[in-house]
Amino acid sequence: GPRILALLNQKGGVGKTTTTVNLGAALVRRGKRVLLIDLDPQAHLTLHVGVDPDSVEHTVYDLLTRPELGAGEVVQTISEQMSLLPAEVNLAGVETELATLAAVGKAQRILADKVGLMLAGQADGGAVSSAAPDAQSLAPHSYDFVLIDCPPSLGLLTINALALANEVLVPMQAHFLALQGLSKLLETVSLVKRSVNPRLLVTGIIPCMFEGQTVLAGEVMADLKTFFDAARSMDVPWRNAVVLEPAVRRNIKLAECPSFGKTIFDYAPDSNGAKDYLALAEALLGMEEGK
Amino acid sequence: GPRILALLNQKGGVGKTTTTVNLGAALVRRGKRVLLIDLDPQAHLTLHVGVDPDSVEHTVYDLLTRPELGAGEVVQTISEQMSLLPAEVNLAGVETELATLAAVGKAQRILADKVGLMLAGQADGGAVSSAAPDAQSLAPHSYDFVLIDCPPSLGLLTINALALANEVLVPMQAHFLALQGLSKLLETVSLVKRSVNPRLLVTGIIPCMFEGQTVLAGEVMADLKTFFDAARSMDVPWRNAVVLEPAVRRNIKLAECPSFGKTIFDYAPDSNGAKDYLALAEALLGMEEGK
Ligand SMILES: Nc1ncnc2c1ncn2[C@@H]1O[C@H](COP(=O)(O)OP(=O)(O)OP(=O)(O)O)[C@@H](O)[C@H]1O
Ligand SMILES: Nc1ncnc2c1ncn2[C@@H]1O[C@H](COP(=O)(O)OP(=O)(O)OP(=O)(O)O)[C@@H](O)[C@H]1O
Ligand SMILES: [Mg+2]
Ligand SMILES: [Mg+2]
């Protein structure tokens, strides 16, 4: 089956969305079929790939709150190799809406069950698609990669992502305050692994918006390396996690392309942003899942 | 009474905490007495000023969940001119904990009532302070400024901040995705003004991590200016809002000082970060509240 990666970090503005879009686009350039899932009420991933969250018929919000709706009815075709499950603003209320189900432990696997069904080859996701009808033929749901963009929180939406994923990637800024949240993040991964998804592993950290020439970045990277080296002998979901290379350098092109609804490869294919995400995709392809 | 400003933006990582700390410290350098309130479960403001959120006796979490506890018992003295109401990780659960009170509309003014009581001269905040006992003599609760650091969300904690504040400042990155969230933010301010706090006004936007030489920054700033010029004739809480100057430039020193528990003025007083926040404080002092 496909590699399913959750892009996780409860700290805001660290590059989760930018990485989901551009790592996904880089994998497409390497010939892979990629499904992107937007779980953020801000719908920035959706906007970033040129889709208007207010004008799509079904979104992840509908998928989570309407039992009869299947993932196949929500899929939007972005290109021949890239599909999207879009988000919308109403996702902000979904934790409240699902509070009762959550209280009895029945709200954490909704995404995993429905997307799992679609991936397992149920081409209609449980019902005939009324989204882009040609999505069914263009996007046969045999994805090589599924990338899930998480909101900046460790709540129900992120838990749903972790229930579906088999790997976790952590985009991170090499700043002091970013290190503070890492243990809580890993604690959450452990909790979900024990109680919901035994397959879950942390594949690695992706340093984003990296300012390599600063002392601070060097210190944070050294701290991270020490932390993960120490984990090699422990029975923890991050025992084989690495700090991926290369770090994604700060590059204004990456901040500009969302306003055109484009990935960096369509907007500025010769930029450092494009180079770094392509190299990251290579690094990821070189790593066998769970090794 | 003091000017009470909420630092608001549901987008993560835009500089709310960095601005709360360093604008507060700049105001102290201009002779003002400043109270900082940390409303973020990440407790980054608390860490930033050198306080360990796990080792303080009472935090904002206790203030919100224990009816008998007064604000005076939670105040921590940072310096002669600066005090703090610290946060802690447990704040993450406070929306759930207060869900019933919230459902009957009784959870939005908890902070406003208790801090309001303290500011109104109740030196013991309703009970004898057991926090830093000398806080009572050092920090007579006659603050000139109260700055409230909000989490990256528009939930109950942020609503509590808006119920207490009389002014709103919006730290923002001059990036495309940042503009997307602005209307939702202003919508929330309007809602709170109508239903909870009629005094609420948006004083301005603070451009943070500013990359002035980029086309993108110039375009976003132009968009903001157009937006606020158009508001001048409307009956909206941001009708007199401005884009504050100077923008705070990207400066690695600002990212380094949290790791030392220091403000930029103690860590790197000659840096651009210090200059920009001092100039911002001047600009803020020059603006009469609500004008
Ligand atoms: N390498 C980079 N260089 C320059 N700008 C970047 C880079 N990566 C991301 N950005 C910009 O920084 C901002 C934050 O990035 P992004 O939205 O991807 O973070 P996020 O973690 O998804 O945020 P959130 O927590 O709000 O979902 C965006 O405006 C984005 O365009
Ligand atoms: N002008 C600046 N130059 C360089 N780094 C900065 C600047 N302002 C803030 N930072 C760094 O950027 C990161 C995000 O800033 P900060 O934590 O203040 O944002 P925030 O809006 O409070 O985030 P959150 O939404 O998580 O509360 C931090 O690591 C901080 O140290
Ligand atoms: Mg995002
Ligand atoms: Mg903050």
Describe this structure in words.
Two copies of one chain form a homodimer. With 291 residues, chain A is an alpha/beta fold. Helices cover 41% and strands 13% of the residues of chain A. An eight-stranded mixed β-sheet of chain A has the order 3-4-2-5-1-6-7-8, sandwiched between helices. In chain A, helix 1 crosses helix 13 and helix 6 packs parallel to helix 8. The longest helix of chain A has 20 residues, at 176-195. The interface between A and B is medium-sized, with 32 and 32 residues. The site of one magnesium ion (MG) has 5 residues of chain B, from helix 1.
- Largest sheet of chain A at a glance? 8 strands, mixed
Biggest interface, residues from each chain: A-B, 32 and 32 residues
Give the terminus-to-terminus CA distance of chain A.
Answer: 16 Å
Bound compounds: adenosine-5'-triphosphate, magnesium ion
Order of helices and strands of chain A: EHEHHEEHHHHEHEHEHEHHH
Structural class of chain A: alpha/beta
